[in-house]
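Sample log: Zinc carboxypeptidase.
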Amino acid sequence: MARQLSQLLGLCLILCSPVLLAAAGGKTYLDYKVPGLDKPAIRQADILPLIQELRQSPLLRVEEIAHSYEGRPIVSIAIGQGDTRVMLWSQMHGDEPTATPALFDLLSYITAPEQAEWREGWMDDLTLVMVPMLNPDGAERNTRHNAQSFDVNRDAKALQSPEGRALMALAKSFKPHFGFNLHDQSRHYGVGQTDRMATISVLAPAYNEAREVNASRERAMKLIGLLVQQIDPFIGEHIAKYDDTYAWRAFGDTFSEMGISTILIESGAHPNDPNRQVARHMNFEMLVAAIDSIASGSYESSSASAYDAIPFNQDDAFVDVKIDNIRAGKGRDSYLTDIAINRRYGSVSVVDAGDLSNLYGALSFDADGSLYQAPKAYPLQETLELTDQRYLDLLRRGYGYFVGDSELLVKETRLPVVMNPRNPQGERPARRHGATFLLSDEDGVRLAVLDGELVDVRSGDSVQLAAD
């Protein structure tokens, strides 16, 4: 509980803290944060009104540079008239929206009247071009791929997608010195061998298989080192480096081949922050710092050692829910096991069991030796009005899910309901089976795990899980 309170306090301090650079009048990040974009999915309808409003600004040049496969406009927004050119693009993967709001926060900050002096300090040195949503068709479906089922970020060489062609055409015509490739990463990534979620991961992509460092890649490394220092006071223990394996088909690596100093920023999870608003804020801070550093050239005097010191991501260091110390089996065959649960592609399942001391749960619970009990199926043969009390009674009797015609079930309960699971748990907890089962003690069923959510069947309350 103490750790949860500490994390909630830390979250508030991050989101409410002052902008670190060039803030005028004591304003905070929240004064520039664009409302209406704190949501898990961002579609083009969410940003078109914002783009229309930005068209009215005399500072900005808004242009339709292409159309998606399904005909949605792909828009660029430019500011400045300097010789050093910076290109930024977001939502190349439609289900990776975190940096898109951050770009609109940045534009809110840049165009604010009180930022005139700061803005005028770099507009003659830099030209910025932003593409806030490269893959609007994927965004509409909340999927990684575009309407052709292409991963646009693997189309840098073939250029068979209109979105990929648009980005490459912009790069060739604009000829940026710096490119910011803005993505989201798995919520299951951790920082090195620690128990910390990777909220921001960075990378200066390789330009060849040997991952050599040339002048343009070194510039990206130096700049990243400064940007990480900028956000370290906020989330220092939650910063990692993305895998730098060379990806020949990817845009970041291809742009690096073309001599563009490319900076990948991957937005990840943070405790008690389901819509990644901490990562959104950190993107904003890094981009404000990047403008200043590129305009002044301050990154040139820094060392790449700060970049080298950033720990790499650890794949699958976290699971969505981890339940420790469950006793399964009977008599001499009983054993203790931990259980890991993930939600993926709309389904919830047990992904691992056994000694999982190497894993961390985004949410966790210590079962303290409670006995695993396989859930029974309740057959629906007539209409059932499922109130909280009726449901809790069924759970206490060992029923964990319902089978049959779902229209016979009238849900009048606030508790999660599992209907016709495809692969229910059996006598012992098993991987790749559903995350619905019961936990009992000498007095009977104590807890129900229903699609990964814990319910105290004695009180009827949801169990508040701890954040690791």
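Observation: The mean pLDDT is 94.
Observation: The domain at 2-314 is CATH 3.40.630.10 (Aminopeptidase).
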